[in-house]
Specification:
4-stranded antiparallel sheet; single chain; Rieske Iron-sulfur Protein; 3-stranded antiparallel sheet; globular; binds FE2/S2 (inorganic) cluster
């Protein structure tokens, strides 16, 4: 994923996405998931690496991980790793703030 500015400020990002909420983001014809866990924002591929079920849900769980609704594979939002290593990692990125406090995928 290339670097794209998604929000003008951290405050704007926080006002648009609540803790544990997920959003669908369309960029250049591709769909991604965007979520927030406490103060950290994560950008991730929208479909499960196992059998491509959608990973965009209303909320994530009580940990920073995405749980697929089909076979319940659990993907860490920090590493993308599936908890039991049953398939490839989910592509995930933490959003970073640049010097102007704009958030972007890196
Ligand atoms: S499709 Fe996601 S765990 Fe099987």
């Amino acid at each position: 994923m290339k670097s794209i500015i998604l929000f003008d400020s951290l405050e704007e990002a926080k006002s648009m996405i609540s803790h544990r909420e997920t959003r669908r983001v369309k960029l250049e014809g591709n769909t991604y998931g965007l979520t927030r866990f406490n103060e950290i924002f994560y950008f991730y591929e929208a479909y499960c690496p196992h059998q491509e079920y959608s990973l965009i849900r209303d909320q994530i769980g009580l940990r920073p991980e995405i749980i697929c609704g089909w076979h319940s594979y659990r993907f860490s939002l920090d590493s993308g790793e599936e908890k039991e290593k049953r398939c490839r990692n989910l592509r995930v990125q933490k959003l970073k703030a640049n010097r102007e406090c704009k958030l972007k995928s890196v």
